[in-house]
Structure formats: C-alpha cells, structure tokens
Amino acid sequence: MSTLATTTEKQVNISLALKDAFTSLRDKGYMRLNLIEMGILKESEVTEMQEICMSEYYKFFTDKGIDPATIQIDLNSEMKSNPYFKQPKDSEMFKAMYGQKTKDGREYINTRAPANAMNCGMGSATSQKSTYYHPRLNELREKLRPLMTALYQSPVKRHLTRFGIKLPPAKDMQLHTDMSYIAENRDGVAEMRESDDPVSYYPYNPDGNFHRLQFILGLNNSDAGWYGYEGAHQKYAEIGDGLNWPGKTKTIQKIPIKLMKALGLKRVDIPTRFGEAVIWNCGVPHGNSACSKVPRLVLYVNYQPDTEQTSADHIIGLGNQPTETKSSFGLNFQHSK
Length: 337
Prior knowledge:
Elements: H1 3-27, E1 30-34, H2 43-62, H3 92-98, E2 99-101, E3 107-109, H4 129-132, H5 135-141, H6 145-152, E4 156-158, E5 163-166, E6 176-177, E7 213-218, E8 222-229, H7 236-243, E9 253-254, H8 257-262, E10 267-272, E11 276-281, E12 286-288, E13 296-301, E14 303-305, E15 310-311, E16 322-323, E17 334-335
Parallel strand pairs: 4-15
Antiparallel strand pairs: 1-11, 2-3, 4-14, 5-13, 6-9, 7-11, 7-13, 8-10, 8-12, 16-17
C-alpha cells in the first residue's frame, strides 16, 4: 500500500472516531477519545504531563519535611501500602496531610481539608498555585483548543486547572453534578453563560450547543476511573423535580443514586487510560470510581465557550477547588469552602 493510501486511510479512521465520539457526547452525554491515536498529543507529551504533575505532588510534601524516598508512587503497579492515609496523629505525614496555617501564621490541624482526599483525589497537593500557573502544562493544554472549539462550535476560553490523583484504598466519589438546578431554567436558559461564570445552569445554550463540557485526560492506566449516568443530560427537568429545585450553588450538587434509578438511568464506568480523554456534558451526574489497586492520575482540562479565543489570567474555582479574586491575581489564594 502506498504512503498516500495509508495516510488517507488513517485520516478516514480518525474522522470516523471523532464522529462516533461526538455522537456519544450528544446522545449519551459523554465521550472517550484517545488523543494520542488522534494525533492531537504525542505519547511523549502525555508522559511529560505525568512527570510534571507528580513532581508538583511530591514537592508539596517534601516542602513540609517529608523524605521523598518514603512517598514514591508507582503509577504502573498495585499499591501494596499507602504512606499517606491513616498515619499516626503524631507523625510528620499526618501533619503534612492535615496541617493548616491561619492568616497570622499559627498552625492547626483540619482533618476535613486533607492534602490528598481519600474519597475523591482532590486536595491541596493537587491544586497548588504553581500547578495552575505551570507554563508547560498550560502550553500542552493549549493543544486541545481546536478540539474544544469544534465541540462547542464557538470560540473558547482556556481556564487554569489542576490535576487529580486517587490512591487506594478509596471508595466511589459522591455522585454529583457541577451544575445548578434552578426552577426558572426548567425548560432551558434564555442566554449564553459568561465564560468566567463558575456556575453552570443547564446542559445546553439557547442555540442548542453545549453549555459546559468537562474534561479529564488519563495520565496512567488504572481500573479506577470515571463513572456517570448515561442520558442524564437530557433529564434536567426530571432531576430538578426530584431534587426539589435546590437553586444556584457554586459547590457541587449532590445527586442521590436512588433518583437515577427512579428515572431508569444506567451507570457507565470508564477506566482511566493513558492518553485517553473523557469529556462529558455538565448535566451528567458523575464521580470518580473506587480505587483498590493501581493509583489513578488525571489532568483536568477546562475550556468554556466564549465570544473570541481567549485564556484566563486568574483561577476561577468550583466546589472544593481553589479560587482567587481577579483583582489579586493570585495574591489572595485560598480554598473555597
């Protein structure tokens, strides 16, 4: 077969894969796409992302005096012992995991704000300011702009984001959406959402395009992954009715599993795969799944529809992610409660 024929066949396969993925996103509310096979990212670039994230992660603990030799994580093997969880209260690791400081420098312990949460992989170690503003991570995320522009069918704004790591043993994350259920929006929204608005209001914009898409990129292979309820993005009114329309919230909206069952919605589990993106509609209740053996590492990617191609200059947090005011440009950095 000639080089030209091989290239043409590959292009056809990529086009078909993209078409199938988009159909899944439209109809089921989620899609999977191997960004390496699509030629969007190189394997070496995904490896580089993995190395940067783990370097940032380790630095959080070594800066607190933890010996780096004692906290290494093998992302390719079963984790036999966990040096982070369930440590003695008088240990340096317990202090590193839960130690906090007041504005005037006094130290205290807060077990509700761990460096690495057991149930969902979200914590201070994965959301440091240096991670959000890491120039190389943001340079690599920029390569995803054409894909997101195509999915939104509009210009997009790239936001500053973090990564997530989940270590065993850990249960399913709480089922939730990063979207508000507001009675006035029962039949749709009247206008497009601002690209800097941390709140999502409906699965679709008035023009029928996606209101907000969420995106994780697998940085290793793990059976711990993403789970969500297929087709739930088409059940905004029914879910809102079931929740009794709780209204606008800047934190996650918890969703009862029994409500999904009552609506006849099926849970779908997608394991984490190196170089594979999982992209879903904000109207799909979801979480990350239990981790029992191999740790899970993912990079968050956040593009929002905009009126022109732009990039954020400060962090806009959602739920338990960090936030900062635009006027401070990072000087008043703290976790939102």
